Every structure is written in C-alpha cells, then in structure tokens.
Amino acid sequence: MTFPRFVPHLRDLVHNTDALISDIWGVVHNGVTSFPEACEALQAFRRDGGTVVMLTNSPRPTPAVIEQLRDLRVPDDCYDAIVTSGDLTRHDIAARPGEPLYAIGPDRDGPVFHGLDVTFAPLEDARYIVCTGLFDDEVETAEDYREILHAALTRKLPMICANPDIIVERGHKMIYCAGAVAELYRTLGGEVTFYGKPHAPAYERAFALVAEHRGQPVPRERMLAIGDSVRTDLAGANGAGLPCVFVTRGIHAAEFAELQEIDAAATQRLFGDTKPPFALMRELRW
Known about the structure:
By secondary structure, the protein is an alpha/beta fold. The protein contains 9 helices and 13 strands. Strands 3-2-1-11-12-13 form a 6-stranded parallel beta sheet, with helices on both faces. Helix 1 (36-47) links the parallel strand 1 (19-22) and strand 2. Helix 4 (146-154) packs across helix 5.
C-alpha cells in the first residue's frame, strides 16, 4: 500500500495539472494574517498558465470574501474565481421569497441575506432556520444552542447550514463554526441542508468556473484539490474524484507536528476510513 508523503514544493506536483481547487482559511490565511508563501505559490501556478478556483465554506457571498481577502493582504491575482457556501446558500434563500426565517449567526455574516426577499422572525414564527455561525464564536460552543435546537425540533423546522466547517483556526485559537451547530441539530433528529465542502454542489460549481475560465471542461485527473481539513477538504476531494494535497499547518497541525513520514498506523490514525491524500505539505509553497 502506498502512503502519502511530505512534499516541500507545489511545483513538484503540478506538471500535469491545469487547475487547482483550493481551500482558503488554513491554506492562504488563518483568519488574522495571510500566508505569503502560499499566496506566492498560487500566483506562480497561474503565471505558468494554471487556473485557481478558491472553494471556501465561508457563509458570506463572494464579494464579501474578496473584501476579507484584501483586508488580510491576499493578492487578487492568487485566484481566478471563488465559490463560497454563502453563494450557494443565497440560491436556496432566494427560492423561498418572503418566508419567515430564524437566523443563527453573527452580524458580520449579514451579507448572505443582502438583496434577497427575507423576513426575519423569532423561532416560534419561523418556517426554517439559516445558520451561518455562532452568535459569539469567541466563547460559545454548539452546546449553548441545545435548548434552541430542541425548540426548533418540536416544530420540525428545516435548517440551512451556510458553513459545514465544525472548527477553524483564528490566529492561534480554535473557534466553532455553523457546522458544529448543524451537526448537533442533525444528531437530535433535525433536517439539515449543508452548502459547501464536502458536498457535491460546491465542487460542481467550482468545475463549471474552471471550464468557464479555460474555455472547456477539464478532466478531474488534471485538477488538484488543496485543503487542511480531513472532514471537509479531503472527504470532499475524494467524493469529487480529485487528488488532494493536504496542508498540515491548519486545524490538524498538532496531530502532524512530530511526524516526518506516514506509515500504515499513522495513516489510519490521521485519516481513518477516508482515502488518504495524494501528498502532504507542511504549508503551501511553490
């Protein structure tokens, strides 16, 4: 059996690659600062004729994510296009014009609703829930929402999860995301629709954008996925038929810190029943 190996440079992996489907948070920034070498790697790939589509579980629409990337000093020429969970969520909300919804999430995620026919309502009057995150992710966990979720369950309210991530790194701190709340609701018996990785619609949109920018569809074997999460990036890449370059500096950093190579035991411990990645990188660099 072949196990994934650590590779120091992206340039050694992309000889037959036309497009990269890259995660953002954990790969090119940590929510506080950008990673210059990762940005330079994507720029170099594009200079050599490659196409980069960023695929993020951010609950915000693309314009808001672009603004965030600029604030974090991620150059515009790192990518050709962006697909966000927020974009996909907006399509679902737009298909429910005027239906009262109960929103779970911070004010900063407001752009996901902008320009749509939305009626916000208290839980007892809502027909569905949109969860973009926790109200205060600095201190809260999903358990703080158990009472709300039980109340929603009694009314059989469906939930839209606009960010399937359970946890992400913000600076040097781990914070919980909408996925943590949504997964709790699902385990309680609630109906949840997830928009973003690892689910197929996010990848289908990314493939469409790759084809648009290159003027024709690109075979899966000529694309690489890049990410730092086993649950979303790796599982999503596997489901979409893409080889995955796994960046270990992100949310799994502690698990990879002392490893120099991967054997059978480490593969099972780190990836479980998930197909292992094509290659490992400590951090994305050209």
